[in-house]
Amino acid sequence: MRFGLLFGMQLPRPWGPDAESRLFHEVLDQIELADRLGFDNVWCPEHHFLEEYSHLSASEVFLGAVSQRTRTIRIGHAVMLMPPAFNPTARVAERIATLDILSGGRVEFGTGESTTPTELLGFGIERATKRDQWAEAVDAAARMFVEEPFAGYDGEYVSMPVRNVLPKPVQRPHPPMWMACGNRDAIRLAAHRGLGALNFSFFGPAETRKWVDTYYEGIASEECVPAGFAVNAQIAATIPMMCHRDEATAVDRAVDGIQFFNFGLGYYGGFGSPSPGRTDVWEVFQRERAERGMDRAAFGRLGGPLGNPARGAIGTPEQIRELLRRHEEAGLDQAIFLVQGGGMRHEDVCESLELFATEVMPEFKDRHDKAELRKAERLRPAVDAALARREPARTADPGYRVLPRSKH
C-alpha cells in the first residue's frame, strides 16, 4: 500500500491579514517534511470560490513550487477540473507536461468536473453536461500528450485545429491518469476508462472491499476502453489521519478540522446557500454540527479498534496499523490521508507525520513492491486487451498548413 497526503488549503474564519500566506507556506513545509519521511504522493485539488473550505484555486502554480521543494514524492492533481470553461484543454496538457518536466517525471494527473453550484454556475457550466465535457476533454488531453502534432478535435465541447501541443511530458506515453470518484457508479466508470479511481468519500475496510471488487471487475471486463494510452489500474481512498501516542490527544487535535472538512463538503455541495464574501462557514458549522451528526460523539468511544469512516485513522500508531492492515487486505492501493482540515495546527500535523512515518509506514513499505509485481502480472492480460480496444494515436494530414495572416 502506498501513502499519500491531501492538502486542500482549508482556512476557517476569522482571517488575519497574513492568514492565507501563512497557510500556504506551512503546507509547503509539511510537504517538504513528508518527502523526507518517505510518503509516496502529495495530492492537491482545484477549487474556486469555496471560502474557508478550499483556497487552492491555482493548484498547478502551487504544485510547481512543490516540485522545487521536493525530490521523490509524486505530485498529484486531485483533481484538475476538465470542463473547458474551467481550463481550456490545450492549457491542461501544457501545464501537466510542464509540471512533469519540472518535477523530473513525478506527476499524477487526476481529472474531475466539480459538483458544487458555486463553482459550476460561477463558470457558466451546466450540471447536465459536465460529465460529457469531462469525457471529451480527457480524451483530447490524452491525445495532445502523444500525438505529434495533435491531429485536432471536433467535439461538442472541445474544438481545436491541428497544432503541436508543447511541451511533451517526461513520462511516456503520459503521466498516470485518474478520475475523481464519489460512488460505485463513478468507480465503475473509472475502471471502464482505464483510469485510477480517486475516492473522496470516507469509508471503512468493509466498504473498501466492495469498491475494490467493483473497480477491478471493470478493469478486467471487455467494457474497459482506456481514455488514455496507458491503463492506470489503481484505487485510492481518502482517510482522515492524526497519529499520536495518546488516543485522546489525537482525537482532540483532529476532530474539529476533520468534521469541518465534511461539513464544508456538504455545505457547498448540497445543503448550503452561501452569500459570497459574507457567510461565515465556520460559525455555521459550530451552530449546526450537532444536528448534522458532527459532534464529538460521532467519533465513537475511545479505546477500541478503528473502523468508523468519519473517524478514519485518528488514533495511536497501533490503532492505525491495525486499521490499515484491513484496508490493505481489502485490496486498497493507496491511502490518501487528509491531514490539513479546519484549524488543525501546523505543529500537530508535522508531529503526526513524523510518528506515522517512524512507527506505521515501514511495515507496509516492506510489502508494497512485491505486491505491486504480483498485481501487474495478474492484470497484464486484461490491460493488454483493453489497450488493444483503444483507438491509436492519429496522424495529422501532412498537407495541413496554418494560413498566413494575410489570408485570415
Protein architecture, described:
This protein is of the alpha/beta class and 408 residues long. It has a single domain (2-393), classed as Luciferase-like domain (TIM Barrel), CATH 3.20.20.30. Helix content is 44%, strand content 14%. The protein has helices spanning 19-37, 59-69, 89-102, 117-122, 130-146, 184-192, 205-220, 247-271, 281-288, 317-329, 346-359, 361-389; strands at residues 2-7, 41-44, 74-81, 107-112, 153-154, 159-160, 177-181, 196-199, 235-243, 313-315, 334-340. The model has no long low-confidence stretch (mean pLDDT 96). This is DivO protein. InterPro entries: Bact_Lucif_Oxidored, Luciferase-like_dom, Luciferase-like_sf. Keywords: Monooxygenase, Oxidoreductase. Pfam families: Bac_luciferase.
